[in-house]
């Protein structure tokens, strides 16, 4: 295998996340400054102590100046990255690689996005160059295809699948209600979820994640240096990104019941981290719940449930905050919304809090497990990128 593991070579020593929401009174510069200065303070460092920076943003800036200008950084390498919904995670991956390679001692990954001021209710997507075969449909319409496809393949009736989708939304909003940094801090009854106006296919408004503004930042160093900054670092166990070939929608064998890119990135991450049974070995997971059927399918693609069993597991509460494997204990995209560049690092922030026992009212029982997973999915079924990381305290 040509991709080598960074297992236990890099450590996260500080991380923070702004509240996500409709920040009409703040610019993207303000959000960046808020996230970065809180992270600097947590590590007990200043701008000069960081050797190199990566800023992940999808639409809210171009070049490293997106970060260097508001922070007044001078003489520092700053790189802007973008990889659709995995943008913040890509900034984190780059910072980790820089430290692991020995190129720098201290690196910082920042993710930021300002979306609520654009006058558009969904994610604004720049039109990529392609061969003209890319489907031109909305994200809800694209992901709505998962529901009938899954039902047909596994013989799940629509009412059962609807109940599972509703449980995903109910669970994530219940978790987010306990999170002071979430955009939507309110529990939503199942009846309200199921009676919400339809958006596409079987998806209602409350099956879809929201749009928000926010920023997050993390500092990484070599594992042997972590004690200089904190006595409870997070060790990076695995980092994996897989980009699909983009032909899934033209492939007659693709049936919309799986994300092959997720399966591949998860397998690679588990190999790097030495995980053989993710359901038993992980303490928690933060996954890309852009739409409720997405989370259901991800439970199988990530190896948390057997093929065709995810609905049963969801309805049994297996992935609730007090379940056998808590999924999205911070509320996920459903409660936070999705400021694209910040979401991946927001997920990592929850791992930091939970594994250190600092999550307050939503603290999970880790049952002696010390590993957590984050996952981002960018694009659409059959045409996407997937990121998986594994971090841990031991």
Secondary structure topology:
Blueprint lengths: L9 E8 L10 H16 L8 E5 L8 H7 L6 E4 L5 H15 L4 E8 L25 H6 L1 H9 L3 H19 L13 H5 L3 E3 L2 E2 L9 E9 L11 E10 L16 H14 L4 H4 E5 L5 H10 L8 H6 L16 H5 L3 H16 L15 E10 L2 E10 L2
Parallel strand pairs: 2-3, 2-4, 9-10
Antiparallel strand pairs: 1-7, 1-8, 4-7, 5-6, 8-11, 10-11
Helix pairs in contact: 1-2, 3-13, 6-10
Protein described:
- The structure is a single chain.
- With 394 residues, the protein is an alpha/beta fold.
- Helix content is 34%, strand content 19%.
- The chain contains 13 helices and 11 strands.
- The strands form 2 sheets. Strands 3-2-4-7-1-8-11-10-9 form a 9-stranded mixed β-sheet, with helices on both faces. The protein has a two-stranded antiparallel ribbon with strand order 5-6.
- The mean pLDDT is 95.
| CA-CA gap between termini | 25 Å
Radius of gyration, in Å, reads: 20 Å
Largest sheet: 9 strands, mixed
Report the sheet-strand fraction. 15-25%
Listing every helix as H and every strand as E from the N terminus to the C terminus, the arrangement reads EHEHEHEHHHHEEEEHHEHHHHEE
Q: Trace the largest sheet across and list its strands.
A: 3-2-4-7-1-8-11-10-9
Mean pLDDT metric: 95
Number of strands: 11
Helix/strand-derived category reads alpha/beta
Helix content: 25-40%
Low-confidence stretches: none
Gross morphology: globular
How many helix segments?
13
């Amino acid at each position: 295998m040509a991709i080598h593991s960074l297992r236990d070579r890099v450590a996260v020593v500080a991380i923070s996340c702004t509240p996500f929401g409709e920040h009409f009174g703040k610019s993207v510069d303000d959000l960046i400054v808020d996230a970065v200065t809180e992270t600097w303070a947590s590590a007990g460092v200043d701008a000069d102590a960081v050797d190199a920076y990566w800023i992940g943003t999808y639409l809210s800036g171009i070049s490293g100046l997106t970060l260097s200008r508001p922070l007044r950084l001078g003489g520092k390498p700053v790189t802007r990255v973008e990889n659709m919904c995995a943008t913040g995670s890509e900034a984190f991956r780059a910072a980790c690689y820089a430290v692991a390679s020995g190129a720098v001692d201290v690196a910082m990954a920042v993710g930021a996005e300002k979306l609520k001021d654009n006058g558009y209710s969904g994610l604004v997507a720049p039109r990529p160059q392609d061969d003209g075969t890319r489907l031109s449909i909305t994200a809800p319409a694209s992901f709505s295809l998962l529901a009938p496809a899954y039902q047909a393949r596994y013989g799940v009736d629509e009412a059962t699948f609807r109940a599972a989708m509703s449980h995903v939304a109910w669970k994530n909003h219940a978790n987010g209600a306990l999170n002071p940094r979430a955009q939507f801090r309110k529990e939503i009854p199942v009846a309200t979820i199921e009676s919400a106006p339809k958006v596409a296919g079987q998806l209602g408004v409350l099956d879809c994640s929201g749009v928000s503004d926010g920023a997050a930042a993390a500092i990484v160093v070599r594992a042997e240096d972590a004690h200089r900054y904190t006595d409870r670092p997070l060790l990076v166990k695995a980092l994996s990104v897989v980009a699909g070939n983009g032909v899934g929608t033209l492939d007659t064998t693709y049936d919309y019941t799986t994300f092959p890119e997720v399966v591949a990135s998860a397998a690679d991450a588990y190999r790097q981290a030495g995980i053989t049974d993710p359901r038993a070995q992980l303490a928690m997971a933060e996954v890309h719940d852009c739409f409720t059927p997405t989370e259901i399918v991800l439970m199988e693609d990530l190896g948390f449930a057997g093929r065709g069993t995810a609905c049963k597991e969801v309805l049994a509460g297996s992935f609730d905050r007090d379940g056998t494997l808590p999924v999205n204990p911070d509320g996920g995209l459903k409660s936070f919304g999705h400021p694209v560049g910040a979401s991946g690092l927001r997920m990592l922030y929850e791992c930091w809090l939970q594994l250190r026992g600092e999550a307050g009212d939503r603290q999970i029982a880790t049952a002696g497990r010390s590993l957590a997973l984050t996952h981002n999915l960018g694009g659409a079924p059959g045409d996407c990128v997937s990121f998986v990381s594994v971090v841990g305290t031991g």
